[in-house]
chitinase
Amino acid sequence: MNIAVQGCRQGPCIASPNGSGSVADIVTPGFFNGIINQASAGCAGKSFYTRNAFLSAVNSYPQFGKLGSAEASKREIAAFFAHVTHETGHFCYKEEINGASRNYCDANNRQYPCVPGKKYHGRGTNPAIMELQLRASRKEQQLLMD
């Protein structure tokens, strides 16, 4: 089965899943626990982020960690975990530190106006903090769903 490569501007714009392994084979319980166990016991994210939740989310992105060689898959997964580990403090934080006291709303942005009464601060493993980033992210997610 070939998969169209989204955003490809020059051919060939298809890729074949490797099929020689799975994300779950790479993100073993030992791998995941080795990251999350670096967070202190009192961290809110420690009981929030789980390997099973990650693997369930991966099912929504069938190309993640499955295109190209086995080595390329490992690099893609490693890059993802490097990023989210940095953003969450080894899965310790679910929200930006002191985020609730911040508000990144750009009141001058007419294309993506802020919702009255809402505060904009980083949340999750890949925090988008500006309303523009949030709207662009939602639009991209919608495109992926279409």
The two ends are 20 Å apart (CA to CA). The chain has two domains: 23-88, 99-145. The first helix runs from residue 23 to 26. The chain is about 35% helix and 5% strand.
